[in-house]
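re: ur question from earlier - yeah i can do the single chain one, its not a big deal. heres the input i used so u can compare w yours
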Amino acid sequence: MKLDGFGLFVNDMAEMIRFYRNVLGFEIKEDENTSNVYLVKDGTLFLLYGRNDFEKMTSRKYEYLKGVNGHFEIALYVDTFEEVDIEYHKAISKGATPILEPVTEPWGQRTCYIADPEGNLIEIGSFNKHFER
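and the output i got, formated as tokens:
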């Protein structure tokens, strides 16, 4: 098996589409009243799926965390330390929730954290070099 991507089960699709499109620059073309967003961002599948629709599809009820949660993070990479600071402040100015201001860690990474409107953590980080897979 190969990792194909990741998805978020969302409560308010319109708000989450606006956040990922307008704040983080994801190329989401679906209308805000859709139940499923499926796109590839930098070679990784990214999915937004309405919680109610997923529950109907699986005939199950699920519990969801409220507020900022620490079960996972979405990691975004930029090439320079300066870009970490720029992207952090840009995201905050557009409505992202600040979690950790940019800091250079002992292992050589500059990192910061924000949260989306439903409390999912997003890291913006860099090792001050071009990204390599």
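The longest helix spans residues 81-93. not sure if urs matches, ping me
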